[in-house]
Every structure is written in structure tokens, then in C-alpha cells.
Write a structure and sequence with these properties.
This protein is α/β, with parallel strands linked by helices. It has five domains: 8-168, no CATH class; 302-518, Nucleotidyltransferase, domain 5 (2-Layer Sandwich), CATH 3.30.420; 606-703, Elongation Factor Tu (Ef-tu), domain 3 (Beta Barrel); 731-951, Rossmann fold (3-Layer(aba) Sandwich), CATH 3.40.50.300; 959-1162, Rossmann fold, CATH 3.40.50. The protein contains 38 helices and 37 strands. The strands form eight sheets. The chain has an eight-stranded parallel sheet with strand order 23-22-24-21-25-26-20-27. It has a six-stranded mixed sheet with strand order 1-2-3-4-5-6, with helices on both faces. Strand 8 (314-323) and strand 9 (328-338) form a beta hairpin. The protein is globular, with a radius of gyration of 32 Å. The two termini are 24 Å apart.
Length: 1177
């Protein structure tokens, strides 16, 4: 055991590189390192200086506010430790560079903040603040902050229950220590074990990745070792498979005989990598040019997909810098080359910006210049290299709310052409990368500009900012040579793009390929007007009304709402347009990928790569028949597409032919797809000589956006026009919700029902009857009877003469609550018709005695009306209801609620934001992209007592299972009904977990199954689950039910098995063969069973598709665990808890997994500790 004290910085490095970076750091700490680390770059030096400036800015601000600050040296000497303790005992407001030492660890906290909380010091305590330049939090910051919480514990007499991060841009972020403590403990113990077993004679195998300050050192070692990562385009997963087969260097890969095979790699992928390695080892030609090889020509792709050259063509490049202290990105130079005639040399034009306002002006001027040139040259395209420019155009248009219509048109029309995928699909290049600096070796001489890369450009710009030189580039006394050097670099980048384009066109001519447009013309129905949308204009007007340099957003504005709510309303108005816009942007991106690099669609959840046609059936009908074409695809693709019906039908395109078809059937678990080709469309295509349009070879399938929000936008526009231009008042209930105004009277209600969960419905109904023009929430965690309580409340409202509208994000939830309201009203003898407002018949509702009526058939006698947002947004339904009840409100967007809120005087949000949330495509500003329940809750796990009612009793789950779900997701506020203590199962065969524990018949169990290399399928977990199910079947169960006991034999219907990935679900279905109900978590939300088993599937976070953020997503994990009435079993790899957390969310998710996976949890304790050996048992 080393006597040397460790530091929080060492722990933070271990958290991201526990094998490689930590080993070299430990070697250096033991003074055994005798190598040479690469010199610190000038950019890194600048970032370090910015970090010091960042802290000083904060300290000066705090001093101006009158806070007492102890500025300490932070040298971690005995005197420094004593000075820190003295400052804490004195109770100064802030302590800078506080030296701390305890338990084998030492460090200097950036800042300690005094808070009002009793401790060993007196009536006050301290929490750590980590000051970081980054604009977003990183997991390494969490590790360091947690370490300082540990170091503060002996001085305070308790562990700080919170810490803060002070990030770039002057933003504070607050965290509860418990969010990460189990993860941190495991990390700490693993680091101790690492130190104890450290062997300086056994260096780890080098691998690419983030190794902190050792990354450049490791990269250099990999180059010296001729590692496979030298091969352009080599993925980490491919490298691992090659190394497992004994292929470790670029030379060994290049020397592989043709036709070789490697386990886990397709023959095509191996061929691509082998020829790439071979060309990189081929000596440069006598002219100094690198070797290259033409790829096989594919019609419509690569070279043949380039648009025809046009005299007006433009070649574009940008330069930008991240201001870490301000937390903003500035695009400081927009550069473009153009030609006056095809024979001319390229001319250059630049637009400079040195502030946010100038950036907006430069961006607008650049767009206007292109538009003016388009009027003279309608066939021009704007060429760029790599995706950054296209992404930046979208961001700048939205950020500055200017030229959005023009950028939309650029994206729709294919004006922007990325030459990188053209290059990669056209040639194999003998260079270690396909950056333009490498590709230009084929067609350009060496560059002459002093600035040679993007990093140099950033450093040069930083130097200019400190130089005092003028803002104009040039060599004259009134201009800046530094800016001129940057402009010269940008001009060379633009010229390189020109010459690359020329070279590609020449290559195409030499291959005898005809010219063709990059994209097929859009159907008229697919095109949107270029003018700004009315709601965008109204939004802009509201935003312009907000005063500059606003100090207090809570201050009341002239429209009768706070400036904060004013801003939110402005941001909400274009919500649906933003959603639709992002859908179209994604569509054009996918269509481009399908034509240029279809392999990139494999990881796209809204596209299918390599769908293979397998057959066709004819389906005659009374009006017109259709051909149903069937396809198969690899189900391991991460797919988010779902076949729908009616207004929600899914339409896809086959980019190879441009044919758009409705999906007739889609089974993502089995990898099958059926598309419906109406005979009328088929015959029309054949008559036009286009062919039927169904590729018989492997083809891409991409989602076509559906503009389902058009009527919502029109209805919202009507209301917004009245609010903005006529100064009409916003309905009180929605205004209260936007303002998040609490209801103090709710606290009395919550106090009254705290001791009697059976009185919730009566008490809540009485409260609702007494109030009008309000919004509140009813939060129902799993098994709390949310639907039952809501149905009882609705029945009592109807009995008192009130009308109720029921809506949700989907028909299933609406229908479920309608049925409950109908049955409750009938049982209580409450008169009042319950109907569904819909244009289509619904047999299931008719069978339940619920009429389905069209909007024009509604009458006041219909006391309860169910319908979608599209129904309740209609003007004729305004103020027709007393209450709007929104079920599954965690999946209803705030913008959709805004559209339909006028239908009722008051709003009841019903749901649980801790379960599956609303899907959203766009990156919406502020809080405008949140669900209505998420917004109302303002980040709370449990609804505040002055904003709603929390159903605190679970009638489903066994008490220890409830306790764990409560601790993980509900701040410990959820409890089980006492009757649930009898919930248990008896195993048909006694069963031990893989670590030797005899599994009991109730509670939450983590059953660890060691495996590696698995991503979407784990045979090890399938084997384990099959054995579990076999040991369960034939056993018995009992659980509380309606004041009594339900009991029976464990059968397939009583065992529910879930998994996160379709491939694992499919394999489980095959293996279990009907012995249990199997599906994804989403499929079983709202259902329950005596036993629930959840397979985590992936071996580690690195191998999990979509990462840990999807695999361990809290809402999904909550739903999976809480389906069980008696016993919930999580089967997974222990490696998931010891993997690298890449985001704050992943760190919190691993923390939850650590809590689930500890021994004390299986002994029915709420907050277990990590095992002494630092691993999950």
C-alpha cells in the first residue's frame, strides 16, 4: 500500500483512462518515468491562462458583491491546511485554493462556499465549487468535486450534500452529492486496488482514446509501433477485432492475402481496410503525389453524383473560436472563393466578425451575397469540405433568428455540397486521413500561408485579440498583419476546395461519366415556402420587445406577464415549425448519405441500411389495389421507426429511385419491412417510363417527414395574433403554468391526505371543484393507481356539473382513461355521456359503451370528451370545458398544451416525468422543448406540494422493491401499501445467482453475468434468463389485490422479460419460446406481472449502441424495474458499473446501477454501500 497521498486530479484521470493514462501517471508519480512527453501546445497554454482568468473574474465579482474571501496559496503544506481550517472556523463567505488533506488524499479546492447548514463548525457549513473553463460539465469535474466532498467530511462532521460547478460563460450548476456518490465510491476503491496491484515493469497495451494529459504521448507511441490506428477510417471496434486475430500493425494488415477473413468483420470491411493500409504504405510518386486508387463506379454515387459545374459556383470555408470564459462560439471569418468566368483564377471574398452582433451581420451579408449570385446563376452550388459548414449554417440561422428561410431553401434544394463523402466514395487515398490538408497533396503544391491549420488560426486570432491591432486585415499601418495571415490561410482553404472540385470533375470526365444533379427534384408537396412563417414573425416581435440588458426576468412586463414567461411564449410559438424543419433537415442529410455514403445510415435510427427485397404480394381492394413489397434487413440496426395508421402512418423513401411509399408493416425485432405500392402509382410510373421504382438489390430506406402539425400551427397562429396584436389576455390557467405560479392552498390539501392515501380522489376532486383558472399536476409513480384516481376525480367533477376534456399524446392513453371514467361514472351512478371525438371509428371504445363522434356532433350533454390536440385546438371548442385533463403529460409538449389550452378554464396534468418522456427532434431554445409536466416540475423528481399532488403509495410493488425505486427515482417519497408485504413468489426450484446468493422471492435483485464483447445481444444473459424462467415456472405467487390476496401458479403470463435492443428481444423470444412475455421496455409501460426480468445486454458502455445514456436511461430503467409486483431481477454485466462515464447523465446512471447491484440492496436496505473490493457483486 503506497504511503504517498493521492489527489483528486489522479482520480479524475483514472475515471476516463483507468488502464493506460492512470498507469503512466502512477509511474510518473513514483518518479519512475524517464520518457519525454510532447511539449504543451500554444493553444493549451492559452487555455490554461484562460482558466486562471476565469477564476479571477469570479473572485472579483464576488468581492464587488461584498463577500468576504480568503485567498490562500493552495500549496498543500501543513501551514496551508491550518490556514484553510482557520478560515472555515472563522466562517468567511468563500475560500479560494483551500488546501485539504484526509484519508490518504490531498488537494486544493478551487473554491469553498459557506452555506447556512449546521456542522461541526457551528451554524454554517461549506460546499466545494469547481471552476472550469468548459461550457458544459464533464465527468472529471464531478469526480474532483466529489473528492473534495470527501475531504471536507471530517472537518464538517458530515459529508456535504451538494456541490457546484462554475463553468465557462459564468454559469453555476448545482448537484446533489448522492447523485454520484456510489459511483465515486466504486471509482475510489478501484483506484486503491489499482495502486496496490501496480507493477512498474508491466506497462499496459497502448490504445487510442482520451488519456488526459497523456493522450499525445500515447498517440506518439502508437505511431512508433505502427499501430492499426494509422489506417485512415479505422474504427476502434475494427482495431480490436483485427488485434484479436493477431493483426497488430499497418504492415501486417496490408500484407494479408486477398480473400482473408477476420472474425467479426465482413469481407467487404476487411477488403476496404486492407487496401487502405496497402496504399498508405505505397511510396509517393516521382511527382511527390500520394498513391490513390479509384473505387468501383456506382451510378448515382460518388463522382457521378456531383452536380454539373456552373459559372456561378462558390467554394466556402469558415473560421471560428470558442470563448471559454464567456461560454460562446464566435465565427470570426466567413470566406468564399468564386470565379467571374470558368477560365479565371479563383477570387476571394471574406466577411469578418469580432462580436456576436458582427457575427449576425456577417452571416446575413454572406447569405445575401449568395442569394444575389443565385439570381444571376440559378444553377450554382456552394461547395465545402466536411459537415461543419452545413451544421454552422443551421445553428447561426436559428441562433440569430435571421435568414432562416434562405438556409431552409439551401438545405432543401441541395445547394450545399459536401465534397468529403464524394472523395471517400470515389477514391482510396494513400494518406493517414482524408482531411483536405492530406487530399490536396493530389492536386496542389505546398501551402505558402504562415498559418497552416485550424489550431494555428485560433491561436493567431487569440494573439490578435491581445495585440491592439486594427480590425481590418492587411499590411498597411491602419490594418492588421495578424488578421491578414488568418485570411490568407482561409483563402488557401477555399482555393483548395476549388481545386479539389476541379480535380474531381476532371476525374469524372476521364472516367466517361455523364453529369447529373446531386439530388432529384422535390415533389411540390415536399417544398415549403421560403418566407418566414407567421409564427416566427410573431415570435420575433415578442423577442424584440424584451429590454436589452434585462436585470430581473421576473419583473412584470407590459403584457401582464413576467419577462421570463414573455420570452418563453416567444420561444414556444415556432416550436412546431422547428420540429418540422429539423425533420426535413434530417431527411435531406439522409438522402445525401444514401447517395454518397450509405454505410453511414447503419447507426441512424430513422433509416434502414441495406434492405433486401424478398418478394411481393398483390392486395386487391374495392377502390384500388396495391402491391405489397417485402424486404429484410439486419435487425441489429438501432431503429426508432414505428409503423402507424391513419394520420400517424409512416412514409418512407427509397432514395435509389425517389419512390415514396407508406409502410404496411415493420418488425424491427425480426428485421422485416413491407411497403405498399398502390396500383395507381405503379401504373402512372410505368406510363411515364420510370419503372415501378422498387430496387431488387440492397437499398436504403429513409423516413419522409410528415407535416402533422400544420393545423396546430394555424390554430396557434390565430391565438397568437390575438395575444400579440390585439393584446388579448392569455387564458389564466396557461399563464399560471408559464409563470410556474404555486398554489399555496394545495399545501393544505397535501397535508390533509398525507396520512390517508385512500382519501386522495375525494380530497382532490373537492379542491378542483372549488377552484377555476388554475393549473396543477397529479403525479403517479408506478403502481400508484394514477388512472383509477383520475377516473374517480373525473366522475366527481361530472357529478358536480362540470365538463371534462381528456387528451394525451396518443390514442391508447386517451382511450384507457375514457374507459376508466366511463366505468367509474357508471359504478357511482353519475349521469353524463362519455364520448371520444374522432373522425374514425374505434371498435374497442364502442364495445365499452363509449360513443365515437365527429367534432360537429359534440353537445353540452357530453360531459366527458376525449380527443387529441388536433381536436381540442379548434376554435369552436374554446372554453367549452371546465377542466382539461392531460394524461401521460410527461409525453405532451408544452407547445401542444399551449395550442389546446383555450378549450378549458383549468388544467390538470396527470403523469410521471420519471417514466418514458416525450420524443423531440429539434434543439429548442430555453425551456420551450420540454414536456408540459417536465416544465411544471422544474427539475424536481417529486411534484412540489404547492404545484400538485403526489400519489405516494404504490399498490403494486413489494415494499423493499418500492423502497429501492423510491430511493432511485422519487427522493424516498414513494412507499408501498402495507398489504404489499405479502407480495412474494416461491421458486419452483431454489435458485442461486452467479455469485452464490440464494435468490429470495421478493424485492429487487441484480444478477451479475460476466461477459465481454457484447453489444446488442448477449447469449450469456439469454442463457441465464432461460435458466431463471425455468426455475420460476411452476412455482407460486401471491400479491395484494383489492383488499385481499391474488394467488396462483407462475405461468408464462406471469413473467415479463424486457431488453433494450431488438436483437436481444428477438433472441429471447426464440429461446424462451412462449415461456414468458418478452418485449422492449416501451412495449410494457403500464403493464405489470408478479415477476419482471430485465436484460441489460451490453458488456460495457463502450459496446452499448447509443451508449449508457440509452441503456441505463433512468426513465426506462424505472419502467423496467417497476413492472414487478413481487420480484424484479436485473441481469447484467458488472463491467457496466466499472466502465467510463462519458457524460454527467451516464455518471448518474452508473450511480443508480451501483445502488441496484449491491449486496445490502438484496437484503432490503435502501442505501447500500459498495463492496470492499470496489466491484459490483
Amino acid at each position: 500500500m503506497p504511503t504517498r497521498l493521492i489527489t483528486p486530479s489522479q482520480l479524475s484521470l483514472f475515471s476516463i483512462s483507468p488502464v493506460i493514462g492512470a498507469w503512466w501517471q502512477e509511474l510518473e508519480a513514483r518518479k519512475l518515468f524517464d520518457g519525454n512527453k510532447p511539449a504543451v501546445s500554444e493553444l493549451d497554454q492559452q487555455l490554461f491562462a484562460d482558466g486562471l482568468r476565469h477564476e479571477q473574474v469570479l473572485l472579483e465579482k464576488l468581492e464587488k458583491e461584498g463577500h468576504r474571501i480568503a485567498r490562500l496559496p493552495g500549496k498543500q503544506s501543513e501551514a496551508d491546511y491550518a490556514a484553510t481550517q482557520a478560515a472555515m472556523a472563522e466562517g468567511v463567505d468563500f475560500i479560494h485554493q483551500a488546501s485539504l488533506c484526509h484519508g490518504g488524499m490531498r488537494g486544493s479546492a478551487d473554491l469553498l462556499r459557506k452555506i447556512e447548514q449546521p456542522s461541526a463548525l457551528g451554524d454554517w457549513s461549506y460546499i466545494p465549487i469547481e471552476c472550469k473553463l468548459a461550457s458544459k460539465p464533464k465527468t472529471t469535474f464531478l469526480v474532483q468535486a466529489s473528492a473534495y466532498c470527501e475531504l471536507l467530511t471530517p472537518l464538517l462532521g458530515h459529508r456535504p450534500d451538494q456541490f457546484e460547478l462554475y463553468l465557462g460563460g459564468g454559469k453555476f450548476q448545482h448537484y446533489a452529492t448522492d447523485q454520484f456518490w456510489a459511483w465515486y465510491q466504486l471509482l475510489r476503491q478501484r483506484f486503491t486496488a489499482f495502486q496496490q496491484s501496480f507493477d512498474p515493469s508491466q506497462p499496459p497495451e497502448d490504445a487510442p482514446g482520451d488519456h488526459g494529459s497523456w493522450t499525445a504521448f500515447i498517440d506518439e507511441r502508437l505511431k512508433q509501433q505502427r499501430d492499426l490506428m494509422l489506417v485512415a477510417g479505422m474504427r476502434q471496434s475494427q482495431r480490436q477485432k483485427l488485434r484479436a486475430d493477431g493483426i497488430n500493425t499497418i504492415e501486417q494488415l496490408a500484407a494479408l492475402p486477398a480473400g482473408s477473413s477476420v472474425k467479426g468483420l465482413s469481407g467487404e470491411a476487411l477488403h476496404e481496410l486492407r487496401q487502405q493500409a496497402e496504399l498508405q504504405l505505397t511510396p509517393v510518386g516521382s511527382d511527390g503525389r500520394p498513391a490513390f486508387r479509384l473505387r468501383p463506379l456506382v451510378a448515382g454515387k460518388g463522382l457521378s453524383a456531383l452536380p454539373a459545374a456552373d459559372p456561378g459556383d462558390i467554394w466556402f470555408d469558415m473560421e471560428g473560436i470558442q470563448d471559454s470564459v464567456a461560454g460562446t462560439k464566435l465565427e470570426y471569418l466567413f470566406g468564399a472563393c468564386y470565379r467571374d468566368s470558368p477560365e479565371d483564377k479563383p477570387r476571394f471574398k471574406g466577411w469578418w466578425a469580432h462580436s456576436e452582433a458582427e457575427e449576425k451581420a456577417a452571416f446575413a451579408a454572406w447569405v445575401d451575397w449568395v442569394e444575389a449570385r443565385r439570381r444571376s446563376h440559378p444553377g450554382l452550388h456552394v461547395y465545402h469540405y466536411a459537415a461543419y459548414e452545413k451544421t454552422a449554417m443551421r445553428r447561426l440561422a436559428q441562433q440569430h433568428a435571421t435568414r432562416e428561410a434562405e438556409i431552409d431553401d439551401w438545405l432543401r434544394s441541395g445547394l450545399l455540397v459536401d465534397l468529403l463523402p464524394v472523395v471517400t466514395s470515389a477514391i482510396v487515398l494513400g494518406e493517414p486521413s482524408y482531411s483536405i490538408k492530406k487530399v490536396e497533396h493530389l492536386y496542389m503544391e505546398q501551402r505558402q500561408a504562415g498559418v497552416t491549420n485550424a489550431g494555428d488560426s485560433v491561436v493567431a486570432y487569440l494573439h490578435w485579440q491581445l495585440s491592439g491591432e486594427p480590425e481590418i486585415p492587411g499590411e498597411s499601418p491602419d490594418a492588421s498583419p495578424k488578421l491578414q495571415a488568418i485570411e490568407d490561410y482561409n483563402r488557401e482553404d477555399c482555393e483548395s476546395t476549388v481545386f479539389l472540385h476541379d480535380w474531381l470533375l476532371k476525374l469524372r470526365r476521364e472516367q466517361g461519366l455523364p453529369e447529373q444533379p446531386l439530388q432529384q427534384p422535390l415533389d411540390e408537396a415536399d417544398q415549403e415556402p421560403r418566407e418566414p412563417q407567421p409564427l416566427e414573425l410573431l415570435s420575433q416581435q415578442l423577442l424584440e420587445e424584451i429590454p436589452d440588458h434585462l436585470v430581473d426576468e421576473g419583473e412584470l412586463g407590459p403584457r401582464g406577464m413576467s419577462w421570463r414567461a414573455h420570452r418563453l411564449l416567444a420561444q414556444l410559438l415556432p416550436f412546431h415549425h422547428r420540429e418540422a424543419k429539423v425533420g426535413w433537415w434530417a431527411y435531406f442529410d439522409r438522402r445525401s448519405k444514401a447517395e454518397l455514403s450509405p454505410s453511414e445510415l447503419i447507426d441512424d435510427g430513422e433509416a434502414i441500411a441495406d434492405a433486401q427485397w424478398v418478394g411481393m404480394d398483390e392486395r386487391p381492394s374495392a377502390r384500388t389495389g396495391a402491391d405489397i413489397h417485402h424486404f429484410r434487413f439486419d435487425p441489429s440496426q438501432t431503429l426508432k421507426l414505428h409503423a402507424g395508421d391513419g394520420d400517424s402512418r409512416l412514409t418512407v423513401e427509397l432514395p435509389a429511385t425517389g419512390l415514396k411509399l407508406d409502410v404496411d408493416a415493420l418488425d424491427a425485432e425480426r428485421g422485416t419491412l413491407s411497403l405498399k405500392l398502390p396500383w395507381s402509382k405503379r401504373d402512372q410510373r410505368l406510363a411515364n417510363g420510370e419503372g415501378e421504382g422498387i430496387p431488387k438489390d440492397a437499398t436504403s430506406v429513409i423516413k419522409v417527414p410528415a407535416d402533422i402539425s400544420k393545423s396546430l400551427r394555424e390554430r396557434l397562429e390565430e391565438q397568437a395574433m390575438a395575444w400579440v396584436h390585439e393584446h388579448q389576455a392569455i387564458p389564466p390557467a396557461i399563464l399560471q403554468l408559464l409563470e410556474r405560479q404555486p398554489l399555496p392552498a394545495l399545501q393544505e390539501l397535501n397535508a390533509a391526505i398525507a396520512g390517508d392515501p385512500n382519501a386522495v380522489a375525494d380530497a382532490l376532486a373537492g379542491f378542483l371543484q372549488e377552484h377555476s383558472g388554475i393549473s396543477l399536476a397529479l403525479q403517479g409513480p408506478p403502481g400508484t393507481g394514477k388512472t383509477t384516481v383520475t377516473g374517480q376525480v373525473i366522475a366527481q367533477l361530472v357529478a358536480s356539473g362540470q365538463r371534462v376534456a381528456i387528451s394525451s399524446n396518443g390514442h391508447a392513453a386517451i382511450n384507457n382513461l375514457l374507459k376508466k371514467a366511463k366505468s367509474t361514472c357508471s359504478a357511482a351512478g353519475v349521469a353524463g355521456e362519455v364520448v371520444k371525438c374522432n373522425n374514425s371509428k374505434e371498435e374497442a371504445l364502442s364495445a365499452a359503451g363509449i360513443s365515437v363522434v365527429k367534432p360537429g356532433q359534440l353537445s353540452e350533454a357530453m360531459a366527458v370528451v376525449g380527443g387529441t390536440t388536433w381536436m381540442f385546438c379548434k376554435e369552436e371548442l374554446a372554453e367549452q370545458f371546465d377542466w382539461l385533463v392531460v394524461d401521460e403529460a410527461g409525453q405532451m409538449s408544452l407547445a401542444n398544451l399551449l395550442v389546446m389550452a383555450r378549450c378549458a378554464r383549468s388544467i390538470l396534468l396527470v403523469g410521471d416525468q420519471q417514466q418514458l418522456a416525450q420524443p423531440s427532434q429539434a434543439d429548442h431554445p430555453g425551456e420551450s422543448g420540454q414536456s408540459c409536466l417536465e416544465y411544471w416540475m422544474e427539475g424536481a423528481s417529486v411534484v412540489p406540494s404547492d404545484r400538485g399532488v403526489f400519489l405516494s403509495t404504490s399498490w403494486r410493488m413489494e415494499p423493499s422493491l418500492t423502497a429501492m425505486v423510491s430511493a432511485l427515482f422519487y427522493e424516498g417519497r414513494l412507499q408501498a401499501s402495507p398489504a404489499n408485504g405479502r407480495n412474494c413468489i416461491t421458486w419452483a426450484k431454489p435458485w442461486q445467482s452467479s455469485d452464490g446468493q440464494l435468490l429470495q422471492g421478493q424485492g429487487l435483485v441484480f444478477d451479475p453475468v460476466a461477459h465481454s464483447g457484447n453489444s446488442v445481444c448477449s447469449e450469456e444473459e439469454i442463457n441465464r434468463i432461460e435458466s431463471l424462467v425455468d426455475a420460476l415456472l411452476g412455482g407460486s405467487y401471491q400479491h395484494a389485490k383489492a383488499g385481499g390476496i391474488a394467488a396462483g401458479t407462475l405461468t408464462p403470463d406471469t413473467i415479463l422479460v424486457t431488453a433494450p435492443y431488438n436483437v436481444q428481444v428477438n433472441r429471447l423470444q426464440q429461446r424462451l419460446a412462449g415461456k414468458a412475455r418478452v418485449g422492449t421496455v416501451d412495449k410494457f409501460q403500464g403493464q405489470e406481472a408478479p415477476v419482471a426480468i430485465h436484460s441489460l445486454t451490453a458488456s460495457s458502455g463502450d459496446e452499448a449502441p447509443r451508449g449508457l445514456s440509452f441503456l441505463l436511461e433512468p426513465n426506462r430503467l424505472n419502467v423496467a424495474i417497476s413492472r414487478a409486483q413481487c420480484l424484479s431481477i436485473v441481469v447484467g454485466s458488472p463491467g457496466l458499473a466499472s466502465g467510463v462515464a462519458n457524460t454527467v447523465a451516464e455518471a448518474e446512471q452508473i450511480n443508480q446501477l451501483c445502488l441496484i447491484g449491491t449486496r445490502k440492496n438484496r437484503q432490503n436496505s435502501n442505501y447500500p454501500s459498495i463492496e470492499a473490493n470496489g466491484s459490483m457483486p
